[in-house]
Amino acid sequence: MWQRVYLQRLKRDLDLWIERGWVTAGNAEAILQSASEPATARRMPGVLAILGAVLIGFAVMSFVAANWAEISKLAKLVMIFGAMWAAYVAAFILQKRDHPAFAQAAVLIGLGLFGAGIMLVAQIYHIVTDDPAGVLAWCIAALATAWLLPSRPALALGILLAVVWTWFVAQMGGTASPHWAFWLPWAAAILLSLRLSWAPGLHLSLIAGFIWQAMNAEAIVETYGLAETQLAIVFLMEMLAVWLAAVLLSERGPRFAAIAESYAVALAFVLFWIFQTAPTDNEQASTAIGPTAMALSAALVAGLALLCVAGRKLEARHLAGIGALALLALLFPVLKSGAEETIPWLYAAAFLALAAWLVSYGTGRGSRFAVNFGFVAFAAEVLYLYFETLGDLLDTALFFALGGILLIVGSFVMERMRRRLVKTATDGGQA
Questions:
Q1: Does the residue 175 lie in any domain?
Q2: Structural domains in the chain (count)
Q3: Secondary structure of residue 38 in the 3-state scheme
Q4: Which of the listed residues 224, 254, 280 is the one where a domain comes to its end?
Q5: Is residue 179 domain-shared with residue 286, that is, in the same domain?
Q6: Which of 179, 189, 313, 384 is the most buried (most CB within 10 A)?
Q7: How many CB atoms lie within 10 A of CB 279?
Q8: Shared-domain flag, residues 389 and 357
Q9: Is 151 helix (H, G, I), strand (E, B) or coil?
Q10: Is the same domain home to 168 and 299?
Q11: Low-confidence winner among 18-27, 254-263, 280-289, 309-318 (lowest mean pLDDT)
C-alpha cells in the first residue's frame, strides 16, 4: 500500500520536473520503472548474503565451543584470526568491485570470527567464556568497524552486543547498582546511526536504551532510594524531553526526528496511563534524590518548551498538551497523598482528553503516527473503562451485547475519522 502511494506521488513529481526541464522524459520513465520494482527483489541477494554471514559466524563459534582438543593452541589461533583477516580482505576486494552487499556480509563474517577468537582465547587460558569484558571487546570492535569502513551490519551487531554486555554485567556482576557504562557504547551507536544516515540504526539504538532502563529500573530504585512512582515520573519527563528535542531538530533531520518523536509519544502515553491505576510504591523514598531528579527533569522539559516557543516550532495549544502531561505527572504524588480516591477518574478523563489532543497534534504536525496513536490510545482507554466499570453493573448477556454494538459502531466511526485526518495530515506534510 505504501509503495503504491509513493509511486503515485513520484509520478506527479516527475511530471512536474519534466515540465520544468529538470528531468528528461526518458530518465523519468527509467526512474519510475526502477522505483516500481519490488523492494524484495532488489534487496534479496544482500539479505541472503547477510543471513549467510550470520550462519557462518554461529557455525564458527559452535566449532570453537566444541573444544577441539586434537588441534594445537597455536593452530587454533592461526586458523581463527587468519580466517578473520581473510574475511576483511575479501570485504575490501568486494567493495572495490562494486559488490557492497557481499562486502558487508564479509565484514559480518570477520566480526563473527573475532567473537569466536575471543571465545577461543578464553578457552585456552581458562577464562569464563561469557565474561562481560570479552563481550565489551567484541562490541567495541563492531562499533569501530562500523565507523572505519563504514558498515551498517557491524553497527547493528555492536548495538546488540552492547545490550548483551549490560545484561551479562547485571547477571554476573554481583551488584545491584545500575550499569551506567552502557551509555558510552550507546552514545557511539547513536552518533554512528546519524553519520551513516541509517534509520534502522536509530531504531535499534533507541530500543536498546529503553531495554536498559527497563532492566535497571529496580536497581536505580534500590541504589538511590527512589520511590517507584518517582522513577516513573522521571522516565515520563525524559520522554517529553525527547519529544520536544525532536520537534526542535525536525528541520535539520526530519526522518530521524520523526523516529525519535514517535517513540517518545508512544512511551509518554504508556507511562501516563499507569498513573490512573493509582500505583502504590513497595517502599517509601529514603533520600532526596527522587524529588531532585524530578525537578531537574521538569526543568529540562520547561527549557526545551521555551526553546520551542522562541523558535516558533509548536503552537500554544500543542505546548499546552505536552505541559498538561508533565504537570499531571508531577502532581501525582501530591494527589496520591491527599485525594487518592479521585486519581482513577481524574487521570482517566485526562488520558481521554490528551488522546483526543494527540489526534489534533498529529493533524497539525502532519504526523500519521501521532494521529493513529491518538485514536489507538483513545479506543484502548474507552475499552479499559468499559470493562473496568460496566462489567460489575450489567447482566452478562447485556454486557456483551452492548459491548459488541459499541465496538462495531465505534470502530466504524473512528476508522472514518482516522482516514480523513490521516489524509489531512499527509497532505499537510507534503504541502
A1: yes
A2: 2
A3: coil
A4: 224
A5: no
A6: 189
A7: 14
A8: yes
A9: coil
A10: no
A11: 280-289
Would residue 39 count as lying in a domain?
no
Half-sphere CA count of 21, side-chain side, radius 13 A: 0
pLDDT digits (tens, 9 = 90+) for 148-167: 888 898 999 999 999 999 99
Average pLDDT of the chain?
81
Query: Going by C-beta distance under 8 Å and a sequence separation of 6 or more, which residues neighbour residue 269?
Result: 351, 354, 355, 358, 373, 377
Three cell numbers written together for 252: 535539520
Buried-exposed string 126-159: b where 16+ CB fall within 10 A, e elsewhere: eeeeeebebbbbbbbbbbebbbebebbbbbbbbb
Do 152 and 251 belong together in one domain? no
> Global pTM?
0.79
Question: How many Å apart are CA 205 and CA 68, to the nearest integer?
Answer: 37
Grid cell 547513536 — which residue?
A: 190
Residue 213 exposure: Cα atoms within 13 Å on the Cβ side: 15
End residue of a domain, out of 154, 189, 224: 224
Under a CB-based contact definition with an 8 Å cutoff, are residues 307 and 248 in contact? yes
In-domain check, residue 48: no
Question: Could you tell me the residue range of the domain that residue 181 belongs to?
Answer: 145-224
Cell of 325: 502531561
